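Re: folding output
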Amino acid sequence: MSGEIVNRVSKSALVTIDLEDYYPKGERVCFDIKDWLYEGLVLREKEFRAFVIAQDWSIYKNQFVALHCTTDAIIPGWAYMLVRLKLSGIAKQVVVGDLEALETSLYQPIINDLELSFYKDKPVIIKGCSNKPVPQNAYLFLIDRLQPIAKSIMYGEACSSVPLYKRT
């Protein structure tokens, strides 16, 4: 033994993919429809339409918007569509759901468009720790894309990864 410290991870064939690197830039905002409901529970069409007309939609310029209702009210589909029409050309993207649904919606096309040929026949680690809100569904989308091409797939960090898949 020479006592020399060798970084085996840097010398291995392991490649890492970090979904945080693909995080779309832009402000995210939740738009809660409950504030436009009678007693927070009932959607009255005439009043709802008046709120939609009176709203200053410019405050959502270039933002990613999640439309949702935090009460147990039943919101008809047309109400979300009406709000979406007002945000057309203003917001970057609009979805019905919470911030997790919004992030999922943002990541799906990004992962679908990723060039993954670099990972062909290689052991891949999908980095797990993230400072940005990468949705769990994004990891599932990535697994679907990597499984047919990667030699193996692990999750975590090179020093402590969890094996998920190994081609036989």
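--- second protein (sequence, then structure) ---
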Amino acid sequence: MDRGLWITWYDLPSAGRADYLAWLHESYIPEIAQRPGFLWGAHYAAVADKIPTSRTTSTMDPDVPTGGQYILMFGAEDAQVFGDPVPSEINADLPVESRKMLALRIAERVHLMAEYGRVDGPEAQNYKSGLLPANCVQLGTYNTPWQNEEELMAYYAQGRLKNMRVLPGCVRTRRLVSVAGWAKHGVAYEFTSLAARNQHFVGHQEHDPKMAAWTKAMGPRLTHAPGSSNLVQRIWPPMT
């Protein structure tokens, strides 16, 4: 299983973007994904017109980078794979030309996360790309005071994840905790398409009064990373 995720949020300038994307997709991702313990690499672009599922409060900490035009993810057997060498060491050891490409990233934020819970949705049985994240991903990363964490775990285990098991269009849902990075908590919802997400996920809790009330109570106690929840579509490998 792919229980470890290396996730990078960032922006890009217009100048040099096409060259960067060609390099990332044709060279960087294939090379990094072949490292010991790595299982896949995937690159996503933000959805321009996001239909929100709920109101969120974002951190005002100026030290937290705000990038979000793109999300690059690598999956590994577990998060410990990212410890020797750590991602910054991997990138520092690249050739000069590759480091110049990496330097184009703006407002880059990196998380190393461990998956501690997963449920498959009804589309998992028809999904042909294995562990690779699906075409459309909604990725939330946030903090909450420790006093809320037991209730937060119950919220997902007793409600949200059960709903995702039967939600049309859902491939899988991953619950995450941070090994390194600003946000301690994360959740990744994977959908067959943006249209499926918009049709079935947006507003789905309105039919479950308990979950709706729980979400209303829990939401204000979460402080999200900039742009969270991020809604993105896969651009590499191409969507299927």
